[in-house]
Amino acid sequence: MKETFLVKHAVGGRAFIDTGKNPIPYTWKQVEEQWIFTVQIEKAENIAELLKWKNELNVFIFQEIENEPTKKLWFYVGDDSVHYAEETGELTIVAKSQIVYIPEQFSAQL
């Protein structure tokens, strides 16, 4: 399975992190009713900009499995859910809800 991790400002906004274009180490796990994303990234201008918009972020996971349609997981990030530890270079994002969808199932039917 191929997986892409994406962090964007709002739904149609710019991407701050896109592992499909710029691979960086990340992990994610569900803990009870929330999802925790941990990203190893050096402090850079894009992290400062990401933190500026931390209350308006969406997180996406795209999962591609051979011979199956791409599955998209869309996570909603709440207030005070994004933190950066400069000493370890670790960005943590906590999402409290998600929507799972397969884009092919939403195509227009004529």
Structural notes for this entry:
This is Phage tail protein. It comes from Paenibacillus alba. By secondary structure, the protein is mainly β. It has one domain. Helices cover 7% and strands 55% of the residues. The protein has one helix and seven strands; from the N terminus they run ββββαβββ. The protein has a seven-stranded antiparallel β-sheet, with helices on one face. It is globular and about 40 Å long. The chain starts with a strand and ends in a 9-residue tail after the last strand.
Helix content: under 10%
Strand percentage lies at over 45%
Specify the structural class.
mainly beta
Mean pLDDT: 88
Largest sheet: 7 strands, antiparallel
Protein name: Phage tail protein
Organism: Paenibacillus alba
